[in-house]
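Still learning folds. Look over my entry:

…
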Amino acid sequence: MAVRNYYTKGKLLLSGAYGVLDGAIGFALPTKLGQRFCFEIDSSNTIQCNAIDDKGNTWFEAEFDVKSLAPLKTSSEEVANTFSKLLIAARSLNPDFNYSFTLETTLEFNREWGLGSSSTLIAALAQFASVNAYELLDSGFKGSGYDIACATAEGPIRFQRIGKEVSITPLNWRPTFTDELHLVYLNQKMNSREAIIHYRKAQSSDYFLNELSRLSIAISEETSDINRFEKLLLEQENLLANRLDIIAIGDQLFSDRPEGVFVSLGAWGGDFALFTGKKNIPYLEDKGYSTILKLEELCIY
């Protein structure tokens, strides 16, 4: 019985949110935490999956028919149907992917953090099934693919996808002000699909996409001046706030902050926000935010 192990990383999009879906350049960091996958090919005529969270608890288990790929039994119909859809897509891309196996996954980060439990799965399954990860993503799933790129990246990247053309540029981004860069979990997980639907309600202009790309490049190149870095972040935040018709998080939740800036990451309204300034740490703790990390604690750069 063949055993194949894969490890794929989580992701954090520092700039290019939403617009990266429409060809804008994004600037992203892979995380130090990811997901481990152990596939074991067998002769059971079923596909069995057991998913373990960062606390060591099983959060999902299911058994699928190897021919139809339909769930036979499961702890979550929603998750099982999504996984079944992925298996069907992988087989359509590679008809030789038709064998029985067991899969055990082990997640290193909190599922509520929005760091990519789905993208890490797609990246690993693509390797196991010998298919293109971006084609697998496109088979009924929505997304730019920057998270797929982060799953196997060794460090910071600039990412752009126009149609089926994917451009990934590895970066040497090592800011001198890294001690001032922190993350706070906003105590609510954002549904990426719903966020994309909201974004799609208005069509993106060339101006919006070009400006977002310009800012992604500038942010990813700024490594020495914290004031300019903050200015660029705020410029992007205002651009996105206008496009989404949403109040920026710094004004909405942290208008009385003692210093620095707060900006949303990824889907606005949940998951993590990036902030600058160490004085904001006790300020956030007083507000009841308990998950506060240095950017360099979580991300690879």
Notes: DSSP finds ten helices and twelve strands in the chain. Residues 50 and 189 are 23 Å apart (CA to CA).
